[in-house]
Each structure stands twice: as C-alpha cells, then as structure tokens.
Amino acid sequence: MDHAVQPKRMRSLNVKRQNPVVAGSEAKSELKIDIRENSLKTRLKRGDLVTHWSGQGLKRFALMLLDSSRTVVPSRVKRLARKGLRKLNTVQARMRLVAGIRPISEHGGWDRGTPINRYYLEQFLSEFSCDISGHCLEFQSDLYTSRFGRRNVDRLSILDKNASNRAATIVADLTRPNDLPSNTYDCIVCTYVLHLVPEYETLVLELYRILKPGGILLVAVPNISRSFEEDHEMWRFTPEGLQWMMSRIFGAPNVIVRGYGSSLAAAGFVRGLSAEDLTERELNSQHDPHFTVTVCARVCKMERDSADG
Questions:
Q1: Measured between alpha carbons, how far is 22 from 168 in angstroms, rounded to an integer?
Q2: Which of 13, 27, 142, 152 holds its CA 20 to 30 A away from the CA of 273?
C-alpha cells in the first residue's frame, strides 16, 4: 500500500486548507460530494467500514514491519507481525461475509491462501494416498500425484487434449476415438475435470477402459461453488448424483463417495474466503449434505471386469 496516498476525505480537507480562497458554490459542491461518498450506506456497500473496523491502521503497521527494505526488524517481531496480519485478514474476511455485494476474492480464494474446495480435496487425497501408486495418470499437470503418491509412483503420465501444454506426455481427447491402450493405469487422478466435459459419461467409460483390473480412480467434482466463464463449466454434481453415475459404470459396491462442506464453508467459498480464514473446527466438525462444497469418489475396477475392457 502506498503510504503517500491519502484518503479522499483527507485530500479534500487539505485542498481547503491550502486554498482558503475556495468558497461559495464550489466549496459546497465539494462538501456534498464528500458527504455522499462517505455516507454510512455507501461505505457499507464498498466495504470501507469493514476494512476500518478490522484494523486497517494495524494492518499498515504490520506491512511496514515486514518491509525489510524500509527498516531492520528482528525476525521474532516479523513473525509476530505476520501472525497478526493473518489474523487481521481473517477478521476482515469474516466481516465481509455479510457486507458488500462483491466477493472477497475474484479467484475462488487462491489469492488469499488455500481455496476451501481444494482444502477438502486434499483431505480426500490424504485419506486415499495409498491408492496413488504404480503407473499413474493425471490431467493437465502433476498437481497431486507426486505430492500424495510420493515414492509409490513408478511412472506418471500427464494427459491433456491441448497440444500446447508442455507438461502433457499424452495428447488425447478421451471423449473421442483415441489410441490409449486398455488396462494400462494403476491409478487415475481426475480432479475438477468432469464438470468441464459435455460428454462426461463417455469420459468416465474411457477411464474405466484404460484402468488396470484392480486399478483405482480418484475423482473430485464441484457442487456448491462459483462458476468461471473462461473455463466453460457445464455441470455440478451432488454426492447422490456422483454415486449413481459411477455405480452404473463400476458397480455400486466399488464406489466410495465423500461429501465435504457446511453452510458456513459453502458461504465462505462462494464469497471468496480461503481455508485459512476458517478454523479447523469450522471446516471439519460436521459435514452437512445439504451444503456440500466438494464431492469426491474412490472407484475401483474389479478384477473380474478386465474382460469387459
């Protein structure tokens, strides 16, 4: 934040002090504009009062302490400043839940920390990390396979239908005829892909085909969330919907579905809060099926199904 930039109200007062000859209709007009722009209703809409109440002055002070180019501050003081700054950001975000019409983050919380939906996804992947092993496949990039599979991953393929993706080792569209061999992968990590695909059932049938007998498919899809037009999102899935769709292809006994979220987590995620803005208890104490943010599934291709591929 530029400390040289003064609030609009302060600038208008300085103009009057420096130019005492300013009077009459011009001064009255300026005062009316200043009052209108800083009215309680307007400031609430902009979220300015929330920023003020959450300790904006303390926030600026903490940022100053962390700016090593300006001053030399002991590391212990910097750690305390960082901790205080995180708390101030959290207080501000929590208050913004009920103030203003714009989201706190335009990027789903990525710019604030860990998005709430990704926090839940990582919980799911941690629970089933032992399944991420052998020859694995992930979409677009190695975002989760190496992180959660670690040394259990013998080989990793990255699939994308876009040939411009340099991280991709396989370029193919699984909703169209392709050359991928059947019964190939021990584990497929498919996170936040199905809701982007018009023919998502065709894609799931292909994932079934290329999985080895006994192979595991780990899936994550959104339920309650904002949409991003640039991603051309098509669908949302409830836990029941994902269970039904996967059971049709893999068989009901081979499907485990997890739903994560609550009314608070869903509201926070839509408004742009990050997982760091909520406590562990608030995120995990009770997952409410009426307000599911993230839906995940662990799906197994049974040994006897290999003949079907």
A1: 66
A2: 142
Domain range summary for the chain, segments of one domain joined by +: 8-96, 116-308
The Cα angle at residue 147 between residues 143 and 152, in degrees rounded to 5: 120
Q: Which amino acid is present at 282?
A: E
Tokens in use for 124? 């799911």
> Among 3.40.50.150, 3.50.50.60, 3.40.50.1240, 3.40.50.720, what is the CATH number of 116-308?
3.40.50.150
Strands 153-160 vs 134-139: parallel, antiparallel or unpaired: parallel
Q: How far, in Å, CA of 287 to CA of 270, rounded? A: 17
What is the per-residue pLDDT across 160-183, written as a single tens digit (0 to 9) for each?
Answer: 999 999 999 999 999 999 999 999
8, 34 Cβ separation under 8 angstroms: yes
d(CA 168, CA 161): 9
Distance CA 128, CA 146 (A): 14
- Roughly what angle, to the nearest 10 degrees, separates helices 263-271 and 116-127? 130
Q: Which residue has the tokens 């003020």?
A: 52
